[in-house]
Amino acid sequence: MTDHVTRLLSQDELRTANTLFRGTLHVAPATDEEWARSTESYQPDRTLGVFDTELIGTARSFDSDLTVPGGARVPLSAVTGVGVRADRTRRGVLTELMRTQLEGFADRGVVAANLYASEGLIYGRFGYGVATLWRRCVVDRRRAVVRAGAPSGGEVELLDLETAKTRLPEIHDGLDDDRPGAMRRSEYWWPGLYRQLNRAEAPVKTVLHHGADGIDGYVVYHTSRPNPADPAVLRVEEFHARTPDAYARMWRFLLSVDLIDTIEVSEMALDDPLELLFTDPRAVKVTGVEDETWLRLVDVPAALAARERGDAEVVLEVADPILPRNSGRYLVSKDAVTRTDAPAQLSMGVDVLAMIYLGTWRPSALASVGRIDVADSGVAERADLLFGTRVAAWCGTFF
Ligand SMILES: CC(C)(COP(=O)(O)OP(=O)(O)OC[C@H]1O[C@@H](n2cnc3c(N)ncnc32)[C@H](O)[C@@H]1OP(=O)(O)O)[C@@H](O)C(=O)NCCC(=O)NCCS
Fold this sequence. Notes:
With about 400 residues, the protein is of the alpha+beta class. The chain folds into three domains: about 5-110, 3-Layer(aba) Sandwich (Aminopeptidase); about 135-290, Gcn5-related N-acetyltransferase (GNAT) (Aminopeptidase, 3-Layer(aba) Sandwich), CATH 3.40.630.30; about 300-385, Nonspecific Lipid-transfer Protein, Chain A. It has eleven helices and 19 strands. Strands 1-2-3-4-5-14-6 form a seven-stranded mixed β-sheet, with helices on both faces. A seven-stranded mixed β-sheet has the order 8-9-10-11-12-7-13, sandwiched between helices. The chain is globular and about 65 Å long. It starts with a strand and ends in a 12-residue tail after the last helix. About 40% of the residues are buried. The structure holds coenzyme A. Coenzyme A binds near residues 92, 121, 122 and 125.
């Protein structure tokens, strides 16, 4: 791109960027009141802008940590607020934003970046790959009966949203989620959740679960019934359980809420055992499985070294045209990750490495559709063992 300037925006340019971004999503500019609340989501010095005669594109991020297989946490940049003015699209503005942003992350020692994509064709070319999945489901409240023998310990406590707001960040941190794909919720994340919950048509409720060692789970929900003839729906916005007792007890509570026909959960981990909790597994209807977060490995050797690896060894070749220092061959084994000149046994783009990194996709599956080149079929099996995980990756922190 020529005749363009790409740079970090100052605090007094953020509202223009917010208006531009909202416009790309076909949303009206924020009112003064909305903007006063939105500013809380902008981490200073993390919003980029591209200018020709004026601002035509923007992208921002906030700092976090990503939990990787094995439970270690690595520095993460959470990317959001990406938009290019409709009359300036398809001429490389996003490409320039992504390149500048990724180089900035690398310079700051960030190991990975993630985002929720509006469309599936946008981010692969910048090295992002689908790394976590989520599913939506609807529970028929009258059909769902918790099986005898399901855990039943602990007590629940109902809070209104205003009370919950002062406690949720600490409670969420205390749950200490070690699931691959989980991320720390920064002070710049919570205001977005509260803005979304404030739009709910009915009061938002929070239920805490008190287990043997203190609070070990919580659920946030509200209800809706657009017309008297429609079913009454309880929508679960957040469900986090650290223990089996918390999981089963909070579901028992949700099923006990009066005047409700169905319970909708839109952001569930793929291996969430909900069907197994009920006498009739068909009380749960899965209504969708979709890509959740897209991951970008910014520092490939650091990322590979940080995650737990299975008992196997492969020479893996990575291609990363945007951050070329990641490109090269790595000997990856259970005990170590080192650069090597040995011939490659598996070759892939950095976007595909992101897809296997958290364990969501098996290397052999990606090889079978031509997205990984393998020297022989035994290599793919060894790579499956090396990158396999016990728990499905899930983020559960929409931004
Ligand atoms: C998505 C968006 C940011 C792309 O910006 P852009 O400046 O047009 O992107 P670029 O010109 O840098 O595109 C780079 C490449 O990606 C392709 N591409 C970009 N957006 C695409 C899309 N939505 N679908 C398919 N391909 C897309 C371009 O065709 C181009 O391909 P090429 O290199 O083969 O020519 C812009 O269209 C937009 O603001 N959309 C609405 C808001 C939105 O969805 N934001 C993302 C939120 S997660």
